[in-house]
């Protein structure tokens, strides 16, 4: 009897000990896992910080050499090592601006079609088809733009613009020069196609989130579909739509390969939108591997820093806007 | 009264026709681009494309080395980027759902998600290529991993938040520690969505060119050495398309066709996966 009792007591203590050990092991595993996940989350922040710091360090030689004039000088001369970022900055802003000018109304209209007009069974397929435009890699837009779209524009739209708007007094300088096919306008049109799905899918999502009661009330007092969109849906979703537009703008500003193919890589600020130009990203993509000398490389990295800075601000505004509409819709 | 009504109706018809036209316009581009790709690229598609090396100008060849390079770079990038992305997403959805850190990370991650990929290339050039002294496949893979990560973080967080709390509570009630609840219960419940995220990330990087231009660079011949420059499909397309040689341009179109349909197939599969989960 005594023996058995002793034995079972020993068994109990050993079972308890192994239980405690197992618990310790689990606790340790839990703690390690928690630390790992937290470290990874911090890693996301570290990458952003790393991008900023490394670009800043890389561009120091150029910034020290040229200072503030880097931003406002047009010259870009690898031979004499004099660099200024005005032409690429100008090209980036102009191409993105024209792209948004086209993509925003078209994107919004598609979103209106998808939420108001389209038969239910067609909504998903058409929505997916538009989003596939966003899935096509940008280099594909580039090769298509260079071999198909640019020659097409050279033969049709550009001569047309030159012969009509090119003679109208005030806007004439915009359409000066021969139709090269490639150039600022071609790049802008391709950017517009690429940005379109972003504007569309976000506007569609926020349009869908409008409470049906609001729309029904407007229809109930006899509004037409257009009036419902114009006076109910758009005011309600304005913040979200602006967010979507800014997100698209962020994409357009940083887009590289498609633009590189069709912009023409000319380092000059030209009023004409059919003339070749350059953008920040196209300059970097075209010249970085061929850049010799520290100052040249550093100037290109400084361009990258400027691009990152601009897109960061635009995307931050976009996210802030989208966050606001999310909170409102809940 | 009647004229006002007619005017409103007219305006409505105009607006709605415009929205119909805009949709046709948008879909038209998709058709035009895919059509051009098929037209230009399909005739070049043959077995040689997958079995032969990139040729010198003026002779026939294939895309074997860039295809291999792209596969290796993509695989390594997913291998590096996915675990970090999943862990970060896990922190945001599970351990720190109501943390201040989480909202900051979410904000920054969303910005990284749409940050220009060429800037990522410059970043990796500064932190890897320059210290190592030479271009390398590793640098290219890390650059792609930086692009993979935010996609995975985003989908992981979104999917884990959808997992019902009762599942976590039930698992906790039988005494499972947190790490086990996450790994054995939450990950399983969110599996389809998380796989979708990885597929979308693969689709995203398989066409990326800009970050590879000055990290992995390019390689004319067969090379599987990730410690040196390595060929990849997008970069070869870039080089070949801008060359004056007709057969190089032809190969570029064929490569473009391969990339596009791979990417579109991946994103359609990803959509199908997540759609099945939702319904």
Describe the structure.
The complex is a heterodimer of chains A (330) and B (279). Chain A has 330 residues and is an all-alpha fold. In chain A, 78% of the residues lie in helices and 1% in strands. Chain A has 12 helices and 2 strands. Chain A has a two-stranded antiparallel sheet with strand order 1-2. In chain A, a hairpin with a 4-residue loop joins strand 1 (76-77) and strand 2 (82-83). In chain A, helix 3 (86-117) runs parallel beside helix 7, helix 5 packs across helix 7 (184-208) and helix 9 (225-254) packs antiparallel against helix 12. The mean pLDDT of chain A is 90. Chain B is 78% helix and 0% strand. Chain B has 12 helices and no strands. Chain B has helices at residues 2-41, 47-51, 64-95, 100-114, 117-132, 137-162, 165-173, 178-189, 191-206, 210-213, 233-241, 246-278. Chain B is flat. Chain B starts with a helix and ends with a helix. The mean pLDDT of chain B is 91.
- Tally of helical runs of chain B: 12
N/C terminus separation of chain A: 69 Å
Percent strand of chain B:
under 5%
Shape of chain A: flat
Question: What is the 3D shape of chain B?
Answer: flat
How much strand content do the residues of chain A show? Answer: under 5%
């Amino acid at each position: 009897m005594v023996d058995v009792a002793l034995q079972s007591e020993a068994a109990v203590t050993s079972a308890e000990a192994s239980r405690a050990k197992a618990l310790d092991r689990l606790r340790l595993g839990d703690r390690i896992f928690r630390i790992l996940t937290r470290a990874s989350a911090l890693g996301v922040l570290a990458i952003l910080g790393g991008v900023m710091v490394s670009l800043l360090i890389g561009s120091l030689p150029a910034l020290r050499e040229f200072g503030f004039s880097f931003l406002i000088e047009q010259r870009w001369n690898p031979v004499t090592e004099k660099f200024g970022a005005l032409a690429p900055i100008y090209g980036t802003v102009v191409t993105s601006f024209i792209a948004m000018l086209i993509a925003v109304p078209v994107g919004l209209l598609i979103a209106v079609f998808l939420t108001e007009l389209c038969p239910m069974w067609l909504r998903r397929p058409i929505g997916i088809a538009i989003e596939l435009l966003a899935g096509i890699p940008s280099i594909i837009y580039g090769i298509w733009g260079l071999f198909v779209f640019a020659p097409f524009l050279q033969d049709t739209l550009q001569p047309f613009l030159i012969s009509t708007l090119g003679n109208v007094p005030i806007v004439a300088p915009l359409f000066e020069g021969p139709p090269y096919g490639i150039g600022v306008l071609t790049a802008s049109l391709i950017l517009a196609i690429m940005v379109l799905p972003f504007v569309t899918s976000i506007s569609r999502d926020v349009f869908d989130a409008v409470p049906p009661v609001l729309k029904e009330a407007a229809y109930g007092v006899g509004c037409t579909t257009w009036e419902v969109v114009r006076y109910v849906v758009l005011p309600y979703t304005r913040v979200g739509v602006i967010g979507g537009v800014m997100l698209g703008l962020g994409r357009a500003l940083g887009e590289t390969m498609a633009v590189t193919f069709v912009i023409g890589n000319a380092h000059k600020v030209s009023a004409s939108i059919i003339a070749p130009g350059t953008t920040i990203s196209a300059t970097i993509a075209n010249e970085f591997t061929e850049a010799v000398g520290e100052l040249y490389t550093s100037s290109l990295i400084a361009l990258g820093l400027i691009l990152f800075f601009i897109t960061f601000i635009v995307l931050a505004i976009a996210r802030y806007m989208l966050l606001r509409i999310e909170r409102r819709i809940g | 009264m009647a004229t006002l009504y007619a005017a409103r109706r007219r305006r409505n018809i105009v607006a709605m026709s415009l929205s119909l036209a805009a949709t046709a316009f948008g879909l038209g581009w998709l058709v035009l681009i895919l059509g051009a790709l098929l037209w230009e690229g399909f005739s070049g598609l043959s077995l040689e494309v997958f079995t032969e090396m990139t040729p010198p100008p003026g002779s026939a060849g294939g895309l074997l080395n860039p295809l291999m390079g792209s596969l290796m770079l993509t695989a390594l990038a997913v291998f590096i980027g996915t675990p970090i992305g999943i862990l970060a997403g896990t922190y945001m959805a599970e351990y720190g759902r109501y943390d201040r850190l989480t909202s900051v990370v979410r904000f920054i991650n969303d910005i990284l998600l749409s940050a220009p990929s060429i800037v990522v290339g410059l970043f990796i050039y500064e932190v890897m290529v320059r210290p190592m002294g030479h271009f390398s496949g590793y640098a290219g893979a890390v650059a792609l991993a930086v692009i993979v990560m935010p996609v995975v973080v985003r989908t992981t967080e979104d999917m884990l938040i959808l997992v019902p709390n009762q599942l976590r509570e039930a698992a906790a009630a039988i005494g499972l520690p947190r790490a086990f609840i996450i790994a054995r219960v939450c990950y399983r419940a969110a599996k389809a969505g998380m796989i979708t995220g990885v597929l979308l990330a693969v689709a995203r990087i398989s066409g990326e060119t800009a970050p590879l231009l000055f990290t992995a660079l390019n390689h004319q011949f067969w090379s599987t050495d990730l410690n040196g420059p390595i060929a990849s499909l997008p970069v070869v397309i870039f080089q070949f398309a801008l060359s004056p040689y007709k057969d190089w341009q032809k190969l570029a179109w064929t490569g473009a066709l391969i990339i596009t349909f791979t990417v579109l197939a991946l994103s359609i599969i990803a959509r199908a996966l997540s759609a099945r989960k939702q319904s």
